[in-house]
Amino acid sequence: MADALRYMTTEGFERIRAEYRELLYEERPKLVEVVAWAAGNGDRSENADYIYGKKRLREIDRRLRFLKKELENAEVVDPKTVKSDKIVFGASVSLEDEDGEIKRYQIVGEHETDLERGRISWKSPVAKALLGKKLDDEVLIKRPAGDLFVTIVKIEYK
């Protein structure tokens, strides 16, 4: 069975690729040098540089495998190229709640979530409630704190 596609924006894809390159071409080679130097110092059982270095190498290798899989399975969507009157992945959506308060969210990939910037995963309950809806639709968002009705007041792709 093939791995599931990972939807992400161009920005998210570039961030993951930059981390992958940083680990593979900069951090890992430097650490390999340190481990090799530490190994040459004799008793490895009490050599903190060697023990820590080997542990960190395992962490880096595990992260590299994860990032490689994410990049291979990425379905990159550039929100600027989306043409839709419905809410789909990449949309920036402004919602008005029952109190007249406006909240703005962008629907992004799982690893791009950043609530402070209003970026929510396309798999989140809020995004799932919004996907496929249109301007002026009223949407019910189920929350632990109670149901919330919102109206879609703006949909943008930028």
Structure notes:
With 158 residues, this protein is α/β, with parallel strands linked by helices. It folds into 2 domains: 6-76, Helix Hairpins; 79-156, Transcription elongation factor, GreA/GreB, C-terminal domain (Chitinase A, domain 3), CATH 3.10.50. It has helices at 10-39, 48-72, 125-130, and strands spanning 6-9, 74-77, 92-97, 102-108, 119-121, 138-141, 148-156. The radius of gyration is 22 Å and the shape is elongated. The model has no long low-confidence stretch (mean pLDDT 92).
Topology of this protein?
Layout: E1 6-9, H1 10-39, H2 48-72, E2 74-77, E3 92-97, E4 102-108, E5 119-121, H3 125-130, E6 138-141, E7 148-156
Helix pairs in contact: 1-2
Share of β-strand residues: 15-25%
Q: Calculate the terminal CA-CA distance, rounded to whole Å.
A: 34 Å
Could you say how many structural domains there are in total? Answer: 2
The shape is elongated
CATH topology of the largest domain: Chitinase A, domain 3
Helix content: 25-40%
Low-confidence stretches: none
CATH superfamily of the largest domain: Transcription elongation factor, GreA/GreB, C-terminal domain
DSSP summary, beta strand count: 7
| Level-1 CATH class name of the largest domain | Alpha Beta
Brief summary of the model shown:
The chain is 39% helix and 23% strand. It has 158 residues and is α/β, with parallel strands linked by helices.
Keywords for this structure?
158 residues; alpha/beta; Helix Hairpins; Chitinase A, domain 3; 5-stranded mixed sheet; two-stranded parallel sheet; 7 strands; 23% strand; elongated
